[in-house]
């Protein structure tokens, strides 16, 4: 979560729903093939930013770097722009209709000094990179969407994804035997009756099964991207 914390630190934003960048988290699969997914979600500074048309002058598409920027004089009138963005890139300090809006500004001040955005510079795992889209395609390929990612054909987000590695079991074992052993708690009640209760759980038992790009409230914004709040 270093990237999102560094982002808020650089911009002087405290803990809370006003997040210019989020790390979305969700789970897929069941025992023994569970995967915890993470996705860096921010403004992707689209080639066709539909939010700008709905912002009544509150957003501009800056020509030098392609950054979509908020006019600080109009940061309380961006609800329509936020509704138009498929990626939930515009966040608000509260649910009030005139709440102050925040979003990624591509660290344009750092770009002017020849540096990369603070999120890319702070990622100790080097999961993030920044540069010209053509250069990123040369380095990482042409994958511009992922499973669960909103359809990119309308807005053309300026983002490239490196496909995740295929999951492999380091230690192989029989899942049914493992679950049978786990269910045996002696005199204590069984946590489940059969292995299928775990491998085929009822719908709704897992809290987060897909990335939530468009939260319905600031509370959901925080819940679906816990990081600097703990």
Brief description of this entry?
With 230 residues, the chain is an alpha+beta fold. It has helices at residues 2-11, 50-53, 79-84, 108-111, 118-122, 133-140, 175-183, 196-199, 218-223, and strands at 21-28, 35-42, 59-61, 68-70, 91-92, 101-102. It is elongated, with a radius of gyration of 21 Å.
Structure write-up:
There is one protein chain. The protein has helices at residues 2-11, 50-53, 79-84, 108-111, 118-122, 133-140, 175-183, 196-199, 218-223, and strands at residues 21-28, 35-42, 59-61, 68-70, 91-92, 101-102. It is of the alpha+beta class and 230 residues long. Strands 1-2 form a two-stranded antiparallel ribbon. The protein is elongated.
Number of helices, where a helix is a run of at least 4 consecutive DSSP H or I residues: 9
Order of neighbouring strands in the sheet with most strands? 1-2
What's the total count of β strands?
6
| CA-based shape | elongated
End-to-end distance = 10 Å
The CATH topology turns out to be: Alpha-Beta Plaits
Beta content = 5-15%
Oligomerization category of the chains in this entry: single chain
Under CATH at level 1, the class stands as Alpha Beta
Largest sheet: 2 strands, antiparallel
Helicity, as a percent range:
10-25%
Which structural class fits the helix and strand makeup? alpha+beta
The total number of structural domains is 1
Ranges where pLDDT stays below 50 over 5 or more residues in a row are: none
| H and E order | HEEHEEHEEHHHHHH
Mean pLDDT: 91
Computed CA radius of gyration, to the nearest angstrom = 21 Å
In CATH, the architecture is 2-Layer Sandwich
